[in-house]
Amino acid sequence: MYILAIESSCDDTSAAVLKDGILLSNVTASQSVHEEYGGVVPELASRAHQQNIVPVVDAAIKRAGITKEELNAVAFTRGPGLMGSLLVGVSFAKGFARSLGIPMIDVNHLQGHVLAHFIRESEDDHDQPIFPYLCLLVSGGNSQIVKVNSYKDMEILGQTIDDAAGEAIDKCSKVMGLGYPGGPIIDKLARQGNPEAFEFSKPDIAGYDYSFSGLKTSFLYHLRDWLKEDPDFIEHHKEDLAASLEKTIVDILMKKLRKAVKDTGIKQVAVAGGVSANNGLRNAFRDHAKRYHWKIFIPKFSYTTDNAAMIGITGYFKYLDKDFASIDLPAYARVEKLKN
Prior knowledge:
Blueprint: E1 2-7, E2 13-19, E3 22-29, H1 42-64, E4 73-79, H2 83-100, E5 104-108, H3 109-114, E6 133-138, E7 143-150, E8 153-159, H4 165-175, H5 182-190, H6 213-229, H7 233-264, E9 268-272, H8 279-292, E10 295-297, H9 308-320
Parallel strand pairs: 1-4, 4-5, 6-9, 9-10
Antiparallel strand pairs: 1-2, 2-3, 6-7, 7-8
Helix pairs in contact: 1-2, 4-5, 4-6, 5-7, 6-7, 7-8
């Protein structure tokens, strides 16, 4: 049973093919056009998706070693994301599925990130979480602690009340004049810096919720004061600034996650989303696994960013339940809850 998966929620056009839940191919075309603008420009993103989607899907099918006529279903990201980008993927999926007479499967983008740990590259790959497990979902637009009871039963225990962790990193990187996207830049610099060099504000939010706007403001005000004394302060201390910023964000994330693990008693703990590629966060997960006897799950780097493989494995689970989408289902830019 073959499933074609399509992901187009932001600025990456991706297509994957799975056979009985095993990944055969995963092709992604990224967009460099946004770098000079310091962020994703929605109109440019949707135009690039229109240019990329046919060759990306074609490459995914060819690399899988099959023909399009062998496909049994098409899974696609329905939302959340940028509406213009989503419309390209959704429209293509509808037309492609209709032309082949096969069912469609709509997938929640966030659900895909959470289930990325179930992507299997071979029959011998059995290192997946056992339900229920906790997942720290961290990206440019989301910071959530999710209790995953099954592939279709997910409960948000806590989430950001303002900025997401990835958004805070990108904005601080922009303030420092380091470029976009800020995540990989800060990550690289942080490896060479002293994480104890500077101290920034850590919010005191009740429960499992997060807040990163205060950290961002604290970073900005400190930087402003230091630049008054030394106009070249950033250049002289960028590694230490990056390391201290990264440590502060990781500390905030892990403190709430520790609380969730303690309160629920669930020690199967995963991390997902773009920020899960961060070296400091990965190291913190490994440290917590040793210290608190957690069983941790950290995705491959290729499955941290937006990719069609995670849409495909989610689509595979829904296919087994015969949970198909109707042709008239629209894309959606925002969603209140992480669910089907």
